[in-house]
Amino acid sequence: MKRFFCITLCLSVWMFIQAQDPCHIGYIDRSLLLKQMSEVVQVEAQLSQLNTLYTTEYDRMTSEYNAKVKEYMAKSKSLSEPIKLARQAEITEYEERMAIYKQRYTEELKKQTALLWEPINNKVKKAIATVAKDKGVTLVLDQVTPLYVAASCVDLLPFVKQELAIE
Fold first, then answer.
1. In the β-sheet with 25-28, what is the strand arrangement from edge to edge?
2. Which of 19, 104, 109, 145 has CA atoms 20 to 30 A from the CA of 86?
3. What is the pTM of this model?
């Protein structure tokens, strides 16, 4: 009996709160919004350029490594044991340097990606918050694959585009 009373009381309080402050839901297709922002094109170009620089250097290192291995394979039968060991160690060191370089450039690319995207993400969040407040929306969802959208839900995309001055 106590459990029934507690559940009834909780439901009554929840219904009272909902009646006082109904939840208005809005949605936005964030990926579509980002595609239309000029800043995104600039960031993607910068990241692509940076990736190309890193990849070019890694490709150069790979070519040098392959040349060293090819030379070693061609001459290994005629080399003395100490020279073979020295060349093998050289090749192993080169492999390690390549692995370290790849790890460093991957980390740097991640860091630069986060750094360049941060202002865009902050700008979008601020615009969404401003529009949501103006429209009386209390919950904003990212519309990736909506299964059902009621008429009472507000599509915030046109308003956010207007806030960000995107045509």
1. 139-142, 25-28, 154-155
2. 104
3. 0.70
